[in-house]
């Protein structure tokens, strides 16, 4: 099978493949914020290890930040402590830091594309579940945990199994969901649905995307697909062994 764009980007970043195991993947951009990074930096301090590539690491305060009156002290003690820790850690390791009041400060997954950090063909990680949104710009991006944040800070690599690929074929209102799992190919039938504006799923989807696109048109059409999870094993591609 020919390589997909995902395969080409992933494979070009593999430092080492572990036989029957995950890949050691090089990370081009590491986005850091104040919630999932303090313990990671503490781990570096205990091991007396520096950030390997501070120029590939970008820190912004965005989780515990007030929307208005950012010039005033943060009232929540824990939030204030985490923000100060990020500021100090960024200074100690020579990392770009966009704190409260900085002209580039903003949501971590918005400032990346805004200021050219997010690039097509790049690998991007952050200690936040919304990191995959950078994939809209042609990057491979995913969220990581605090221990993995420490790993990337110290090595600029992460140990990660190559994700399975999924193909969605849409033909009119009928579509097929095809994916690999457990050494088998599966195909499930599904149906495409145009969501109504009063549907809570439409509202949640529109609201979430509006956070990353201030110009999102109020009449944007949003599609959903309903998967028939009751498909039997006999209907899967190639079947399945007992």
List keywords for this structure.
globular, single chain, disordered C terminus, four-stranded antiparallel β-sheet, 242 residues, alpha/beta, 2 domains, Aconitase, domain 3
- Individual helix count: 6
Main beta-sheet annotation = 5 strands, parallel
Cα radius of gyration in angstroms: 21 Å
CATH architecture of the largest domain: 2-Layer Sandwich
Mean pLDDT: 87
- CATH fold title of the largest domain: Aconitase, domain 3
By DSSP, the count of extended strands is: 12
Amino- and carboxy-terminal Cα gap: 27 Å
**Can you identify the CATH class of the largest domain?**
Alpha Beta
Structure description:
It is a single chain. The chain has a five-stranded parallel beta sheet, with helices on both faces. A four-stranded antiparallel beta sheet has the order 9-10-11-12, with no helix packed on it. The protein has a three-stranded antiparallel beta sheet with strand order 1-2-8. It has six helices and twelve strands. Helix 2 (38-47) crosses helix 5. The model is unreliable at 236-242 (pLDDT under 50). The protein has 242 residues and is of the alpha/beta class. It folds into two domains: 5-160, Aconitase, domain 3; 166-235, no CATH class.
């Amino acid at each position: 099978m020919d390589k997909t764009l995902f395969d080409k980007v992933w494979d070009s970043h593999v430092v080492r493949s572990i036989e029957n195991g995950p890949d050691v993947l090089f990370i081009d951009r590491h986005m850091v914020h104040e919630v999932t990074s303090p313990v990671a930096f503490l781990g570096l301090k205990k091991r007396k290890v520096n950030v390997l590539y501070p120029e590939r690491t970008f820190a912004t305060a965005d989780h515990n930040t007030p929307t208005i009156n950012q010039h005033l002290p943060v009232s929540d003690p824990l939030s204030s402590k985490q923000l100060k820790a990020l500021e100090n850690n960024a200074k100690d390791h020579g990392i770009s830091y966009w704190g409260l009041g900085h002209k580039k400060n903003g949501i971590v997954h918005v400032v990346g594309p805004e200021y050219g950090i997010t690039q097509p063909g790049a690998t991007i990680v952050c200690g936040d579940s919304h990191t995959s949104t950078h994939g809209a710009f042609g990057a491979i991006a995913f969220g990581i945990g605090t221990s993995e944040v420490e790993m990337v800070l110290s090595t600029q690599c992460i140990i990660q199994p190559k994700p399975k690929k999924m193909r969605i074929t849409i033909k009119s209102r009928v579509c097929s969901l095809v994916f690999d799992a457990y050494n088998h190919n599966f195909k499930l039938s599904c149906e495409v649905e145009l969501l109504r504006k009063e549907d809570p799923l439409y509202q949640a989807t529109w609201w979430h995307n509006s956070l990353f696109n201030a110009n999102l048109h109020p009449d944007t059409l949003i599609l959903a697909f309903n998967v028939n999870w009751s498909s039997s094993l006999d209907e899967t591609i190639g079947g399945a062994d007992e």
